[in-house]
């Protein structure tokens, strides 16, 4: 990390000028969701892990009202006036960062200008929540630089609002929550309806979690993500005729759904609801399996989750199906499934650490033959949530 920060510092000074006085460093993680897909915006449980890959940010206060943004992967810096941020929210790059500044000001926070230089180690458009990492590293930096004293959970809520209101993705809270509240060596069992959560230790022994990137980039704005939300809302409205006390789909148990699901005469809405309700139950079973150290049961739940996402929710696609189904048939692999919203992105795989190299070779060969592309691999090493990095590392 020291080398990364030194390169960032040189780029920062080359872009914005001046010297290193007053520059501070922040980090927010990407996330992998072990299980619990498309349950978050339905009020259900999720089980994310904050990752060691994420978004780094160098920040330096200014004495005016300008935000100047630059990124190691974007060719042109962006300059925006804090008094006219809505003029810049449609920019091809920088809109997520500016949406955070805008939502903070809408809350009555007084912000000063600053220079912000970003470097992402989580791959963009991969389903590992690069957007939430960028949002939370920005929110954490602005919170600290302006001495706002906003707690991390509230920053996560504000970041979610910014993405929904100003970016146009009607996302749940999971990604921002994981980026803000992550805990190393743990997953977070989060109930999205009320943000109650508990840390679940990751006792994997000789096994490892490995991320496989399909290298089919995804965009939630261009996918059917918002359509799935609308389908869930329609299914809930019908189910509430039989279950008026159900505040959301995840509040309905599998047993209740078996008794009342016939009110969903539309087969598509039936399948959408069945996924959410069954997936929510799988999350609780998965957390219990991890707590007990029962990795075999946990792996079987990963496989069942992928089948449900493929058949009932229809968000996997040929690339993710190839990766997950090939991995499931490799000896030693306990489980594999797509992770994230789908429509491209990544899978999560549970396998012996000693087999990772052989697993990568076999999976790559099959995937390249079927898709013409090579996958990328990342260890799913856990990390703490968004925080400031010791200035001495600069």
Record the SSE blueprint.
Elements: H1 2-16, E1 24-33, E2 45-46, E3 48-61, E4 66-71, E5 74-81, H2 95-106, E6 114-120, H3 130-145, H4 152-167, H5 174-181, E7 186-191, E8 196-201, E9 207-213, H6 225-239, H7 254-260, H8 267-292, H9 295-311, H10 318-328, E10 335-339, E11 346-352, H11 356-371, E12 376-379, E13 387-389
Parallel strand pairs: 4-6
Antiparallel strand pairs: 1-3, 1-13, 2-7, 3-6, 4-5, 7-8, 9-11, 9-12, 10-11
Structure, explained:
By secondary structure, the chain is α+β, with helices and mostly antiparallel strands. It has helices spanning 2-16, 95-106, 130-145, 152-167, 174-181, 225-239, 254-260, 267-292, 295-311, 318-328, 356-371; strands at 24-33, 45-46, 48-61, 66-71, 74-81, 114-120, 186-191, 196-201, 207-213, 335-339, 346-352, 376-379, 387-389. It contains eleven helices and 13 strands. Helix 4 runs antiparallel to helix 5, helix 8 (267-292) packs antiparallel against helix 9 and helix 10 packs antiparallel against helix 11 (356-371). 40% of the residues lie in helices and 22% in strands. The strands form three sheets. The chain has a six-stranded mixed beta sheet with strand order 5-4-6-3-1-13, sandwiched between helices.
């Amino acid at each position: 990390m020291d080398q990364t920060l030194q390169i960032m510092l040189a780029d920062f000074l080359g872009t914005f000028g001046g010297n290193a006085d007053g520059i501070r460093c922040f980090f927010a993680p990407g996330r992998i969701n072990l299980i619990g897909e498309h349950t978050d915006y339905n009020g259900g449980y999720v089980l994310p892990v904050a990752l060691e890959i994420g978004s780094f940010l160098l920040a330096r206060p200014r004495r005016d009202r300008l935000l100047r943004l630059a990124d190691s992967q974007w060719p042109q810096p962006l300059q925006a006036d804090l008094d006219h941020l809505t003029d810049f929210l449609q920019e091809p790059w920088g809109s997520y960062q500016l949406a955070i500044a805008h939502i903070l000001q809408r809350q009555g926070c007084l912000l000063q200008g600053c220079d912000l230089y970003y470097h992402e180690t989580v791959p963009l458009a991969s389903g590992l929540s690069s957007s939430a990492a960028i949002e939370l590293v920005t929110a954490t930096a602005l919170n600290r630089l302006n001495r706002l004293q906003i707690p991390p959970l509230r920053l996560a809520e504000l970041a979610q609002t910014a993405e929904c209101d100003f970016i146009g993705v009607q996302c749940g809270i999971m990604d921002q929550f994981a980026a803000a509240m992550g805990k190393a060596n743990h997953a977070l069992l989060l109930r999205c309806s009320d943000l109650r959560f508990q840390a679940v230790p990751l006792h994997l022994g000789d096994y490892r979690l490995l991320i496989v990137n399909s290298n089919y980039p995804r965009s939630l704005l261009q996918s059917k993500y918002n359509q799935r939300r609308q389908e869930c809302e329609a299914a809930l409205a019908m189910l509430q005729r039989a279950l008026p006390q159900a505040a959301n789909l995840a509040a309905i148990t599998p047993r209740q759904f078996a008794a009342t699901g016939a009110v969903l005469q539309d087969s598509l809405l039936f399948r959408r609801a069945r996924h959410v309700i069954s997936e929510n139950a799988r999350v609780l079973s998965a957390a219990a399996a991890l707590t007990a150290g029962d990795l075999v049961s946990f792996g079987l739940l990963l496989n069942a989750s992928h089948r449900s996402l493929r058949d009932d929710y229809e968000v996997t696609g040929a690339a993710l199906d190839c990766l997950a189904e090939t991995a499931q048939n490799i000896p030693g692999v306990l489980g594999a499934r797509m992770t994230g919203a789908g429509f491209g992105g990544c899978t999560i795989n549970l396998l012996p650490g000693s087999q990772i190299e052989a697993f990568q070779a076999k999976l790559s060969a099959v995937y390249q033959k079927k898709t013409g592309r090579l996958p990328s691999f990342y260890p799913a090493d856990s990390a703490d949530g968004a925080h400031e990095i010791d200035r001495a590392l600069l």
